[in-house]
Amino acid sequence: MAPPSDAGEPGAATAERPETSPQPVVDRQAAFAAGPPGASRKAIGIGVVVLAALAISGTLVEHVMSSSSVPNVTSPTTRARAIRALRVPAKHLPGGPALVNFLGIEALARHAAPGFHLASSRGGELSLSALRGKAVVLTFLDAPCNDACPVIGAELAAADQRLKSAARGVEFLIVNSDPRATAWQAAPPALARTGLQHLANAAFLTGPIASLNPIWKHYGVGIQVSSTGQVAHSNLLYFIDPKGRVAYRATPYANEAHNGTYHLAPALQQRWADGIATYLRALAPASSSHR
Fold first, then answer.
1. Along the chain (291 residues), what's the average pLDDT of each consecutive run of 10 residues?
2. Are residues 37 and 153 in the same domain?
3. pTM of the predicted protein model
4. How crowded is residue 186: how many other Cβ atoms within 10 Å of its Cβ?
5. Which contacts (CB < 8 Å, 24+ apart) does range 8-12 have?
6. What is the CA radius of gyration of the chain?
7. The domain containing residue 279 runs over which residues?
8. Are residues 50 and 157 in the same domain?
């Protein structure tokens, strides 16, 4: 479903302007002396219909205004990837072809990762540039954590455990992807529901839409907000090297159940955790030792 627009909703009635016609001459003085005329049943009926129409149109206006309170954001169907992928044979990438295909890995031209400065769940603000010298995993999850977030977050937490001493040189950054829930929280569900809140090297970042939307656009993350307030976004995971350059991009996923929850078989989650750890070991500073 495309993001809501200000064009209104399908089926909304549009008022037609009545045609003008010559008006009869009225003796205003005589009419005033006669007093107000009684309302006919037909007139009352018309008035009720008009009031009902106004009430419905007012509800529609309120609905459209509320759904359009979120500015247009990038769409997964139209987004242009600003970060260029390279044609590198899978056999030359960490883990080889099998892991590359499983993670949907793309090698990226190692240009400086688009910077940002956002409010951090750790308190204060955090900028990407402040993490130079560390390998960074950057992904985008909604603050309420009500889509694939529980699966992806759990995979990141498990990858941290697999890194052991190398985790000292790694940071996990989760940028908010929900334009309807941008307020700062010390323990947003995206951390609390996934085990990431226990990691000193994990942070959830958020800010006003004016700050978030350029980040979504630069990293090719499509966001859709339906007229009912449901938010959908594309799932991407970036690996940024210690010099602050984008190195790899993966495409995480999860399966949606009939009740709207998301899951992935434990064996597949473990494989994702192993794969994330493999790519982080390839990037993490060699000097990273015991935690």
1. 42 40 40 45 46 39 34 44 86 97 96 96 95 97 90 96 94 93 88 91 95 93 74 86 97 89 94 98 70 41
2. no
3. 0.71
4. 12
5. 8/60, 8/64, 9/60, 9/63, 9/64, 9/227, 12/57, 12/60
6. 28
7. 85-283
8. no
